[in-house]
Amino acid sequence: MNVRTAKLIAFALVVAAAALRLPERVMLLAASAQAENQITIANNKFEPQTITVVEGATVTWVNKEGLHTVNADDGSFTSKALNAGDNFSHQFAKAGKYPFHCTFHGSKGGHKMSGTVVVVKKK
C-alpha cells in the first residue's frame, strides 16, 4: 500500500468516525492506520508544518529539493544534510511536543523553516 492510499483510507476512517460521533480513541486508531507519517521538505518549508501521531509512530521527512536538515530543538534527533531525494525517519516513543528545524534555513523556537511533531498517548 502506498502512502497516498494509506492516507486516503485513514482520512475516510476519521471522517466516518466523526460522522458517527464515535469516541476519540477510534479516531486516533484511524489516524494511526496510516502506513507512514510523512513530512515533505520543499520550497524551504516543512509540509505539514505540524503533524500529530500516536506514541510509537515513525515520522519520515522526504526532501524534494535543495539541501536541508531535520533537527529537534532539544537535540533528541538530528539528520545528516539531506539532498533532494533523501529522507530521514525518527520513531517517537513518548507523548509530547517535538519542535524541529532546518539548521540551514531555520532555528530553534519556530523561526523560519521549522515545524512540530505532536505525539499523543495510545488509548
Short description:
The protein has two helices and eight strands, in the order ααββββββββ. It is of the alpha/beta class.
Features:
single chain, 123 residues, alpha/beta, Immunoglobulin-like, four-stranded mixed sheet, globular
Structure description:
With 123 residues, the protein is an alpha/beta fold. It has two domains: 35 residues, no CATH class; 84 residues, Immunoglobulin-like. The protein is 22% helix and 40% strand. The strands form two sheets. Strands 2-1-4-6 form a four-stranded mixed beta sheet, with no helix packed on it. Helix 1 packs antiparallel against helix 2. The chain is globular and about 40 Å long. It starts with a helix and ends with a strand.
